[in-house]
Design brief:
Layout lengths: L1 H4 L3 H8 L5 E5 L5 H14 L8 E5 L2 H14 L10 E4 H12 L12 E3 L1 H14 L9 H13 L4 H6 L6 H19 L2 E3 H14 L1 H10 L2 E4 L7 H10 L6 E5 L14 H4 L1 H4 L4 E5 L7 H11 L20 E6 L2 H18 L5 E5 L5 H10 L5 E2 L9 H14 L4 H7 L9 H14 L3 H11 L4 H23 L2 H10 L3 H8 L2 H23 L4 H9 L13 E5 L8 E6 L16 H15 L2 E10 L1 E4 L2 E4 L4 H4 L6 E3 L6 H14 L13 H16 L3 H6 L10 E4 L3 E9 L6 E6 L3 E6 L6 E2 L1
Helix pairs in contact: 2-3, 3-4, 5-10, 6-7, 6-9, 10-12, 15-27, 16-17, 18-19, 18-22, 18-23, 20-21, 21-22, 23-25, 24-25
The structure holds adenosine-5'-triphosphate.
Length: 755
């Protein structure tokens, strides 16, 4: 039949095995997206399952949207009574909680507010201030991340506090902030991102009837990117599959790259233990990339040990070699990338090209180089639309329209635009709210009713009250876009920007216009109302910004997961950047970075570039950089060198050729694999043949590291020895550690090993 015609045998098996637990181990580019879409369509069209009984969980909103479109087009022609639910874990939780959170009995109501990361950080700031901590010493951002980490590991404020060790002042402070933070969330009827999952899991655990309701509703469940699920998501899936186990999870352990956000690779590695009699289906044919690209990717990831292992093959042609370029410095690297992109675009104006880097901060040089050549690009991640100050201001008004007791939102815009409510008045509101244990909105009511305080301030507060009350009334009857317009115009926000009359103010106005457009589109598409519009805005993530039609896309390797491009540049392949410095002393971290490398390489369909620079500025200081160890894990014969003059690769090749002539390759247990150590190789070889260089003999003493050699440090990882000072026990050694800079260490105590 038609639905199965475009699938290979394993894909077909994955689509038609609809009953019982199924694990689809899908290598990169092997068609897992295709399988999920077909499976949903198959369940509906062939098995007659009502769409409302199907739940598919994807990693991003964008993926959910695309999946919906694919399923619709596969089912074109059939009339459906309902739609399958295709959503992210977070959206699913919002949906469940909007219906059932009151059953939790914790005082939350169904119209709770969602705090995104920015809101959470602001709330932490408030708590720090209230507890009298100095924000210079305890950064709100790092505390928010510690709280989030604790919550994701299943700890609440009490449990966290109980685990703080005696003398650990910092953790003790975090524990206090954590407690107040949670109290404030509750008082504001607000949930942060982590709570969305936590509360849903608690709800399903505690309330058997609600659990049964969702078990009966979602009779067929699919989970994409299963390798990146965390403990809470795993618990949620288990709770939803208590009565039936028609669960199909799709994933690739080699593409698990979110450990830092709590993802637990053992969820996929142990699927068969968690679900007895699970059927395992492997998709091993890659349709995306050339043989060379696939070989490169497989080679790199084969250095990992935490794998189930699969053999990925392709019927695609061998393709071109991997193109390698070594730049003298980071700016030249960016220029090379931009100029090469220009060439590709001249040859094929419709080419689709991605530049992938490890961290967002690396984008700047590439943006500048592309701009210089007048090449348009889209950038995914970094500062997104919904993070702009003006957009967040209007969203704060909208939150108040739904819930004027949201003190965090109120605090943000009480005097934006300026309306004569000064610092003193705001402090007074804060104080009163604390005294009466109520919200800022209540405190304002008390102040305006009693009328005590300066007359001007009271008048300003009354004006503010009226503005918000009007918005609240409007939100009860008007579509989302009307309320958005009112929040921009009736609050005086637009007028204030117009009065500024600067170019920057104009740009802000344009952004607000865009927000209105988003709301109008939302009304036309979903018609769900203001609450749903805000929920969707809160849950938007970096990866959701990606548009398929752009010619050139700049993004992190993380954001590129699930995407494919004919031409891909992986840039900044330097130790300390990629792999990240954190991976230097931690094997599990290094394996995660290697998987990220695998994800990045397998995004490429036809042409892959790998580039790195020999010097790079770190905190304004120019430091020498070492080629990434992932480069040496590639099969050299697959690589074509585009560098000018001598490069790391050409030296590596020369050293291998030499090694064949002068075996054995290792002198005193060291491998000669970088520019500096190859120079040393020659020095030592000469020393050996001449028998004159005594220094070489001295260098062979155990525990002494000569300049030009590589060492490994337990904390800083791999580094290049620059200088030695002194001898014996007091010998000092200066080492350049990529990502950390130069360190002076006492050799005897530094725990260095040859690298
Ligand atoms: N049976 C098939 N016949 C032809 N092309 C296929 C087939 N299956 C998949 N493809 C193509 O292979 C490419 C990769 O498929 P898809 O994006 O579904 O892979 P994936 O497994 O989700 O990849 P990744 O996990 O690497 O993101 C797509 O261009 C898709 O159209």
């Amino acid at each position: 039949m038609d639905l199965l015609a475009s699938l290979n045998e394993q894909q077909r098996e994955a689509v038609t095995t609809t009953e019982g637990p199924v694990l689809v181990l899908a290598g990169a580019g092997s068609g897992k997206t295709r399988v999920i879409a077909h499976r949903i369509a198959y369940l509906i069209a062939e098995r007659g399952i009502p769409p409302a009984n199907i739940l598919a969980v994807t990693f991003t909103n964008k993926a959910a949207e695309e999946m919906r479109e694919r399923v619709e087009s596969l089912l074109r022609g059939s009339k459906l009574a309902s739609a399958p639910l295709i959503s992210t874990f977070h959206s699913l939780c919002v949906r469940i909680l909007r219906r059932d959170i009151e059953a939790l009995g914790e005082g939350y109501t169904r119209d709770f507010t969602i705090y995104d990361q920015d809101d959470s950080i602001r709330l932490v700031k408030n708590c720090l201030k209230e507890l009298g901590y100095d924000e210079q010493r305890l950064s709100a951002r790092s505390i928010q991340s510690a709280i989030s980490h604790a919550k994701n590991s299943g700890l609440d404020a009490e449990m966290f506090a109980a685990r703080v060790e005696y003398n650990d002042e910092r953790r003790a402070a975090i524990a206090r902030v954590f407690r107040l933070y949670d109290e404030r969330l509750r008082a504001n009827n607000a949930l942060d991102f982590d709570d969305l999952l936590i509360k849903t899991v608690q709800l399903l655990r505690r309330c058997a009837d609600i659990r049964q309701h969702y078990n009966a509703k979602f009779r067929y469940i699919l989970v994409d990117e299963y390798q990146d699920t965390n403990a809470l998501q795993f618990a949620l899936v288990q709770l939803l599959t208590e009565q039936q186990q028609n669960l199909c999870v799709v994933g690739d352990e080699d593409q698990s790259i979110y450990k830092w956000r709590g993802a637990d690779i053992t969820n996929i590695l142990n699927f068969e233990k968690h679900y007895k009699d699970a059927r395992i289906i492997r998709l091993e044919q890659n349709y995306r990339s050339t043989q060379n690209i696939l070989d490169a990717a497989s080679h790199v990831v084969s250095h990992n040990t935490e794998r189930k292992g699969k053999r990925l093959w392709t019927a695609n042609p061998t393709g071109e070699k991997i193109r390698y370029y070594q730049a003298p410095d980071a700016e030249m690297e960016a220029r090379f990338v931009a100029a090469t992109i220009q060439e590709h675009l001249v040859n094929d104006p419709r080419a689709r090209i991605a530049v992938l880097y490890r961290t967002n901060a690396q984008s700047r040089l590439f943006e500048e180089a592309l701009r210089r050549l007048g090449i348009p690009y889209q950038i995914v991640g970094g500062f997104s639309f919904y993070e702009r100050a003006e957009v967040r201001d209007i969203i704060a008004y909208l939150k108040l329209a739904l819930n004027p007791h949201d003190s965090l939102a109120l605090q943000r815009i009480i005097n934006t635009p300026p309306r004569g409510i000064g610092r003193q008045t705001v402090d007074e509101i804060e104080r009163r709210a604390r005294d009466c244990g109520g919200s800022y909105w209540e405190a304002i009511s008390i102040m305006t009713e009693q009328g005590d305080g300066r007359a001007r301030a009271i008048a300003a507060l009354k004006g503010f009250q009226q503005t918000i009350t009007r918005l609240v009334t409007l939100a009860q009857r008007a579509p989302a876009s009307e309320v958005v317009k009112a929040a921009i115009i009736d609050t005086g926000y637009e007028l204030a920007l117009k009065a500024e009359g600067t170019e920057e103010a104009d740009a802000r106005l344009a952004n607000l216009q865009e927000l209105v457009n988003a709301a109008v589109e939302y009304d036309a598409r979903e018609g769900g109302g203001l609450r749903e519009f805000l929920d969707a805005a809160a849950l938007i993530s970096d990866a959701d910004q990606y548009r398929h039609d752009a010619r050139v896309t700049l993004m992190t390797m993380h954001a590129a997961k699930g995407l494919e491009f004919p031409i891909v540049f992986i840039v900044g392949l330097e130790d300390g950047i990629f792999p990240h410095a954190r991976a230097a002393a931690d094997r599990a971290e290094l394996e995660e970075e290697r998987r990220l490398c695998y994800v990045a390489i397998t995004r490429a369909q036809r042409i892959l570039y790998l580039t790195h620079a020999m010097k790079r500025r770190v905190y304004g200081e120019e430091l020498s950089a070492e080629p990434s160890q992932f480069l040496s894990e590639l099969p050299l014969e697959l690589i074509e060198d585009l560098s000018r003059g001598r490069s790391w690769l050409s030296l590596k090749r020369a050293s291998i050729a030499l090694e064949d002539r002068y075996a054995p390759r290792r002198y005193q247990g060291k491998t000669y694999d970088s520019v500096d150590s190859i120079a040393e190789f020659f020095r030592r070889r000469n020393a050996r043949t001449d028998q004159t260089d005594r220094a070489a003999a001295v260098a062979s003493q155990p525990g002494e590291f000569k300049p030009g050699t590589h060492v490994r440090h337990p904390k800083y990882g791999r580094g290049l020895v620059i200088k030695r000072e002194g001898t014996g026990d007091s010998a000092k050694i200066i080492v350049n550690f990529p990502g950390y800079g130069q360190k002076k260490l006492i050799e005897k105590y530094a725990n260095l090993e040859p690298a």
